[in-house]
Design a protein that fits this description.
Blueprint: H1 3-26, H2 33-39, H3 44-55, H4 59-77, H5 82-88, H6 94-105, H7 109-116
Length: about 120
Amino acid sequence: KTVCQNNKKRQTATRIWFVLDYIQKHYTEKISIEDLANLVHLSISRFRTVFKKTTGISPTTYIINMRLALARELLICCSDSINSIAERCAFNSQSYMVRLFKQHFGMSPSEYRKKFKST
């Protein structure tokens, strides 16, 4: 590969690492793919492609995974309502979080809490 190709790959990776850092700091807030693409001066479609190529998953899936991980922790460590946890994790609604949670972990948030919360 040429030096130019390697530099371009390095630049792209740096952009994605910048976005990953941004997501890490802001995933409990509303984040749009458009905002992320603008952050690194890429079109939305180019951003999606580069993100997936770099991380192996889409930016939406990446954000959802982070939010679900936080929801799982909150279900175990605190007694907030599921609705409150959905809001804290920046899900659009409780039902959306519950649906994703079931898909990801094979049980509802309340089932998960009953199973894993220490008494």
